[in-house]
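Moderator note: this is an archived Q&A kept for reference. The question asked for a predicted structure of one protein chain; the sequence and the answer are reproduced below.
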Amino acid sequence: MWRYYDTVKTLAEALALLAEYGEQARVVAGGTDILLELERRVRPQVEVLVDITRVPDLDEITLDAEGRVHLGPLVTHNQCVASDLIRRCARPLAQACWEVGAPQIRNRATVVGNLVTASPANDSITALMALRAVVTLRSCRGERSVPLREFYTGVRRTVMAPDELMTDIAFPAMRANERGIFIKLGLRKAQAISLVNVAVILQVEETETGPMAHDARLALGAVAPTIIRAEEAERLLEGRWLDEATLDQVAELAAQVVRPIDDVRAPAEYRREMARVLSRRALAAIRSGDTRGWLPDDPVMLWGDRRGGSAEAPSAAGRGGAARESAIVTAVNGRQYTVTGADSKTLLRLLREDLQLTGTKEGCAEGECGACTVLLDGAAVMSCLVPAPRAHEAKIITVEGLAVNGQLHPIQQAFVEAGAVQCGYCTPGLLMSGAKLLEERRRPSEWEVQQAIAGNLCRCTGYYKILDAFERAGHRYAGPDA
């Protein structure tokens, strides 16, 4: 899929490689999109992948003196979900990030990567479009800022030049008199591509007659070649009370601007109608003041006790640039391994083929089933979507490493007692998600268990025994008096 894998330590190194290789280079951070695109040949095969995950300070979420929120290129979806700043100043973005994939995906996938992939169904783009985001593109030739509305030219097409790297996403923090919400319609509650999504942000003036709208922004996704703004609907809202008639008119205008297609997930007319329904639902939520949506107050992250932070970042020593085809030195289950010739593999293949740790299973190789879940630097990830060189100087735990001194982990013991296994193929991934959940929640609720295993599919059990096993494990892990 790629010839060389370069892990850089500075942005200057990354930009130099992009300048050298142009269209034959791709930047990798989370890798959850680019690996699939290369496998499916959605993107042309590349000469070099440029890994920026070891560049310091790129995973920061900050608020500047002018009241603008900034996201670095390594900020993940789960970081946005957990960030108090994002929840307070850009709640629609936190809601959109929560709707992306499953915990293992959100621990790796970056918001910048979501924008650059440029799918019209990508959730975070819609929220950022309503937030009036501006992106910064940098190359060896200089730097430029592009409003997100001008960034997209078509399906999976942007104005980025081959030698450019997106280094910042910036947008004004929502003010005290602004309310916003993101709503998504998918075919299931998790791991679902949007059929339609909508983000609405309004300034709300409370009057004796009722709430009045100003400065409206209504963005829609998965209904056109790019994410779009319903400008006529926005104009209609200006200075209008949010009464039933106004909500109906605005929703109708939103439905008229969309240009959906028929595909395997939904017909065009259904999407058009749902654009109307979701737009009205969002406006009604803003009118009522209840914009909580589906975002939990204390979401399951599957990154252990690092609440609000990113995963541990290993150093880049010994790799990148001149060190091409060098050994991958990694610690797996507390044991150090040195692997050569695996630079073009995924972490899943490295574990199974080079280290003979076959407990980690390949179910879909697309990040859909969770059978390949492992812990990478303390966070649960889908190993089929992680490039093998990312394991260099990292700490990895697989299902073989859960038992300690011959003693099963509480989640393993609970699976045995509850009979939570049938064919067993999905079990390693479920166990890894369960082990990480128990670090975050000593005695998780059923809802928290459901969040934790949203990315783990089981084709046999119906999940009842699995839920029973999680409950048993919680009691054992926390103790009877916890």
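Archived answer notes: The first helix runs from residue 11 to 21.
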